[in-house]
Amino acid sequence: MSTTHPTPTTDKLHKRFSLRTILHLKSDARPRTSSDASAPPVAFRSRIFPRPRAQSLDHVADGAPRVNGRRASTSGSSAVDGESKELPLRPTSSVYKDLPSLPNGVQDIVATAVPVPESVPVPSSVEEDGLEGLAKEGIVEKVGLGPNSTRAEDALNNFDDAVGTTTNPDGAVAKYVTPIKTILDASGATEAIHSGLDSLMENIPWLMKGLDEVARIHPVVTVAVLAFKAVYNMELTRRENDRRILSLYVEMKDMITVLIQLRDVRDPEDVGLDGKPISARLQGLAKQTADDIKNCANACDTYSKKRLLVKVLKGYVWEERLVEFVGTFQQRKTEFEQALTMHIARTVERMDRTLAGVKITADAINERVALFMRVFETFVPSAEAELRDLVNQKGDPKTVQNNETLLLELSEQETRLDPRRNTGRGIRTNTIKDLKEELRLDLDVALQKNLETFDGKFELYHRQLREELAQFIHEENNQLLTAMREGPHDRIENEELRGIWKEMNWRRNVKSRLFVMTLRDHFRERVEDIKHSRVFGDPPSNLQRVDAWALQFVSVPWLQPIMEAFDDDGSGYITISEVNAFTRALPVSLGWSLQHWIAYWAVGWRLTTAQYREQIHGIFAQMFALRSKLLPENRQGADFYLNKVWQSTVELTLAFKVDDLPSDVQISRILPYAQYEEERIRRNLLDIRYDIDALDTVYVVAGKDSERLEKYVLILIYLLLRRDLEIFTFAQTNPLHPDELPNSAASLEWVFDAAVFRVRDLTEFYRQHKLNVGTQFETVASGLFTYYNDSRPLWSMNTYEDPPFGSSREQELKDHHTGPPLPSPFSPAISVPRSFLTYKPPEGLPFITSGYEAPTLAFSPPDENAAATLKSILGQWNGFLYTESEYPYSPMTSFTFLQSQASSQAFGGTGRHFSNEEFMIRGTCHQDERGVVHVRFHLSYAISGEEYYVGHVDPTGALVGYHSWDQDISESKHTDRFILKQVSQEIMSQRPSPSSLLQEGKARHWWHFATSCVLTEVRRRSWNWSYFQGRRRVRKRYLELNLRLYEYGRPLDEDENEEYLLLRRSLTPADALYYRSLGDYILHIIPEHYRGLGGPRLMCLDCPPPSAEDFTDTIDFCDLVCAQTVVTHAERSYLEDGNPHTTEHSLLKIRTVLNFRDMPDLRKKAQEALQVAYDRLDGTPPRSSAGDFPMPSPCCAVCQAELQLPCWFCVDCSGTFICDSCESSTLLACMSCAQPYCQPTWYYGEDSRDTFTCNRCSVKGIKPYIEPASKHVYTHPLVRVSSRPRADGDALSLGTDDRLLALERRVEDMDAKLDRLENRLGGELLKINQTLESVQQALQLIVSRVAKADA
Asked: Which stretches are tagged as biased composition: Basic and acidic residues (predicted)?
């Protein structure tokens, strides 16, 4: 059955095309000829409708029907195969809200002018005749109405009707068509941005080559071209790209592409129609564009380094700044187009018309910027979007930024969403203080700070690109000569290799093995020719220079390294460009022959790399030895540095094969190039101040052959380590900025990242070529990347008995000196001056005591003419911020209101937040008809912003109300409240919470408040010991709980949280400021272990199991309470299923950071010490007659009390037991009076000036009677001793011999006790003698004075 398919009417098509013709006329601003009217403007049509829909149904040659351009199925039940299309976003209402009134309901159509495919019912089945089935389904009837059109096309058809009926077509165009054109352009802009991102890198090689050509012709634009190429090279090396940043690079690329048109202006001094040469016209514009490009790249670089939570809380500020560059680039693009028009257009009329076409208005730029702000919302990464939602649930960003409890909670969520934050480059476990400081950092300050590093990197890129551009210009100038040569071999620059290539008739590439073997045969023939010429007296030619010593290394045993040296991409083929790259890499200043150069890569590189390997190990030995000599405030940074750097470094150095190095090569033959490379990289590091802040910086520092990381990686690591060793030496006597060593670690981590990506690239290459990956890594670069490919053999439990890295801690201190840094194996040592520290060292004490000083703002009485309402609130107000569930949620705040001259009801003042940030007060007050005084004021911080307060004075005289960081304050929106009273800070600290006064028993709270105020005031005025003792107790307990709440340790339970709130309430603003500085200092002192542990660390000695692949996977706890937890395979995947950690396992306690290098040695010693402890408790004699573990008495070494299990046993001391009570209080025994005293500092005992005496003996000058070097301190590791686990089959009774042996042991123990008693009595006798001497001297003085008086 045949079916006729009607086609669209000519009238419809004519109307559709005629409207597009009108649009084209308006856009081009030129008249159309009659010949143009017959066809639509295709270019413009594709711009408005980039994806025109296909005809719904058409026929193909075979007669099969097509639905939506796809062939329909003709048998069986089948759904029509449709293609989903990516549609642009609908224009927002703001785009079309000002449209004029349109006829025939077109207003509604325009509002949805984005192409939206109409749904067409799909037939459930297609019969034998496909068209008949379609007719039954009603599809043919739909098709008869004409091809499906988009809503945008329908809108255009309606406009055509309106235009056709009007008597003023031009007016209709202005009234209807122009606004719709704007809407259509806006609707496609978003899709254009996405399309630009997808094609960002597609034509970059062509663009770069075109820009080089333009720079060759017009040197004036070189500065802009080099700036663009530099920042694009930086971006190309990023492995993780933010689409928001990439969208800016799309705009930058769109701007710089305009310069390609300069190729049509061949004369660099071409004079435009206005009489101005093009060089003068572009000079200032190119310089300004280069600055814009650099500033944009610096802003993107700074933003990319921000942690996730900072991006969320300050995202709008950053996005506004980034989007500003969109407008800047649009403006520069227009200026370039206008400048080019003056030289490309050859008539004034054409110039005016073209200038009108490229003219851009400020409104258009603003629309473009606004569009990007909307598009940025769609580019937010999922993790950032989730964290942003959490912030919105907590309140506005300003409120969150100033609430430490919320910041702590969000920081924990950030760790979950972005695990790299705690293991990332140079990032310590961020404290709340660190986070708040980063949030307060002004955007311009952050950009300027980052520019210090970015400048050096940018200049490095600039210098290298200038060299490449000079090379390109040189090659282009010789292009004609090259084109006249015979074949591909003429492209080879080295004369000798060119002859070989020509003789072998190779084309563009040759197999690597064949190439190297041909070289070997060629050099052998050369030697024979030279011998022959010497015999017959022939004069030698220029090509007859041969380094005979090098020829032995151009042979089969050295085939692999030579192939690697030539074959950069590892493809197995050597190309002409790779040959030229190999010969260009040889510095002309060395004067080496080709054989010498090849021999270097055959054996010389391995020899020099082995030397750098040994130097790196020596530097690490010095660093570990220096660790205990550093100032306490520098220890945390040093520990962080070593844990981050050592493991990744030894995975490279230990994998490098040194067992088959040749011994018959004179080091002087290969020394010059090693010196040259080291000096070149060192200069590059100096240019960036040794601060590698991104992956691209690694490559720009490496310079040439940057993709072949194995060639230079150990040189780069060595130079960075040598500089860091200077910092370690400096840190023995000078405090460092807390981020100094972590930043140094970050530089090395970027190098390790480059190695990781190099391994990934090689792995992918080997897999594509179906090669064994593990075998290949064992051979390439002498196995340098073996452990980066698979590190399990290095860190498995099997290496515990004989680790391939380092010796024991004590042995290393004996083997390696701790003096100046080791000299370079090839260059003299270069000391790093103090000015090359990345951060300025802190000056002065870190404790803030300025709050206790007299206030500088004195209160003056108000003027007599001041309003009574204002007089009632002037003065000092003290109080708290709180919520219904937490009183207070911050320490006490204090305001002093002073009269302002602004009005009779205005007041002002200044103050200081407990975070040490100053603020200004501005506010007003008024009294309502009921006589209630209402107050509204805000605090202006230089960094944190504006903080708002709204409240009133209640009947008790308290100023109460709501507080927020948002100007719109109301009870329904905010739960943060405040209460202020005009009483002293000491009295306010005792005041009960508002909620407690609303409950039953408020009289009891008032009575307790009254008695507490009286007692506190009496003690404060009397200055007795109980007052200071109480303040010390409050300070220590507050800092302890504050550390556990916000940083490290077991979370507070309900009772501890209530206690913490009471302690917080008891602090005055001066106390809060001082204690905060103390807490910050403590955070920089205590050890910071990995996995977020700080302070003491408990580690299970029985986990992980012997089958574990990584011995660094330990089970750790913060204290004994947490240690009473069973950990299963579900919590720690590296535990064996069914073999969990239990409370019966042995524990090791450490109060210093345990580096991976020391872990096997310490665990082995801890297990031995645990066995010794059990033996001593059982009365077993020492295992060694040499007395490695002398017999201790079974009592606490501090308090001398009888031991009660469980207890602790020192791993480093000679059999020292410590009871739980002394250990939990970190008590030591005074070496003079033997009385317990608290260890005063964390690293006490490591300083030679520590006397191991209590405060009383130190004040009296009593010297210790025992050598302090043998004394136990709490930085020593301890093992937990509980009841000895009894093995199955152990005897339950002892025989006669065993009893006699046990009796002998008891006698030995008694002798040991007597010895200790004698030592103790000796100390007491020494004290008595010293006291008697003092009494005798006093009596003599009295007698002499009496005698003088009598005389």
From this structure: 809-818
CB 1162 within 8 A of CB 1211: yes
Q: Which of 1231, 1272, 1237 is nearest to 1255 (CA)?
A: 1237
Measure the CA–CA gap between 954 and 961, rounded to whole angstroms.
10
Name 1229's bridge partners.
1236
* Cα distance between residue 64 and residue 845, in whole Å: 88
If we measure between CA atoms, which residue out of 159, 192, 190 comes closest to residue 26? Answer: 159
Contact criterion met (CB below 8 Å) for 279 and 269 = yes
Q: Is the separation of the CB atoms in 336 and 285 below 8 Å?
A: yes
What angle (nearest 5°) sits at the alpha carbon of residue 287, between those of residues 285 and 289? 65
For residue 1035, what are its two tokens?
């300070």
Q: Give the containing element (helix H, strand E) for 1147.
A: strand 1147-1150
Rounded-to-10 torsion of CA 513, 517, 523, 529? -150
Task: Identify the helix (H) or strand (E) that includes residue 728.
Answer: helix 713-730
DSSP 464-489: HHHHHHHHHHHHHHTHHHHHTSSSGG
Q: What is the pLDDT of residues 1011-1055, one digit of tens each?
A: 888 888 888 888 888 888 889 999 999 999 999 988 888 889 999
Contact 809, 1172 (CB under 8 A): no
* Three-point CA angle 679, 683, 687, nearest 5°: 170
Cα within 13 Å of Cα(1288), Cβ side: 0
Asked if residue 95 lies in contact with residue 179, where contact means CB atoms within 8 angstroms, the answer is: no
Query: Residue 1110 in contact with residue 792, Cβ under 8 Å?
Result: yes
Over residues 740-757, the mean pLDDT reads 93
| 1141 backbone dihedrals φ, ψ, rounded to 5° | -75, 135
The rounded distance, in Å, linking the Cα atoms of 232 and 1009 is 68
| Calculated CA dihedral for residues 397, 401, 404, 407, nearest 10 degrees | 60
How far from chain centre, in Å, is Cα 1041?
Answer: 29
Question: Tokens 């702590």 map to which residue?
Answer: 408
Contacts of 33 (CB under 8 A, 6+ apart): none
- Output the CA angle 1220-1221-1223, nearest 5 degrees: 65
Strands 933-941 and 918-927: antiparallel
Which of 212, 718, 269 lies closest to 471 in space, CA to CA? 212
The Cα 77–Cα 1226 span in angstroms is: 82
Question: What's the confidence (pLDDT) of residue 1017?
Answer: 84
236 half-sphere exposure, CB direction, 13 A CA radius = 15
pTM, to two decimals:
0.72
* Structure confidence by residue, pLDDT tens digits, 340-375: 877 776 545 555 555 555 555 667 777 778 888 877
Sequence-ordered alpha helix ranges (H) in 418-442 = 432-440
1035 vs 1067: CA distance, rounded Å = 9
Look up residue 589 and give its two tokens.
């200043």
SS3 958: coil
Lowest mean pLDDT among 180-189, 193-202, 461-470: 180-189
Query: Any idea how long the chain is?
Result: 1351
Beta-carbon count within 10 A of 921 CB: 19
Phi (first) and psi of residue 926, to 5 degrees: -155, 165
Q: How far apart are CA 611 and CA 667, in angstroms?
A: 11
Residue 156 to residue 855: CA distance in whole angstroms: 74
Contact 878, 988 (CB under 8 A): yes
Indicate whether 904 pLDDT > 70. Answer: yes
Rounded Cα distance between 95 and 949, Å, is 39
CA distances from 889 to 411, 976, 1035 (A): 18, 9, 18
Q: String of b and e for 335-345 (b: at least 16 CB within 10 Å)? A: bbbbbbbbbbb
Residue 1251, class by beta-carbon neighbours within 10 Å (0-12 exposed, 13-18 middle, 19+ buried)? middle
Q: Give the chain's end-to-end CA distance (angstroms, integer).
A: 152
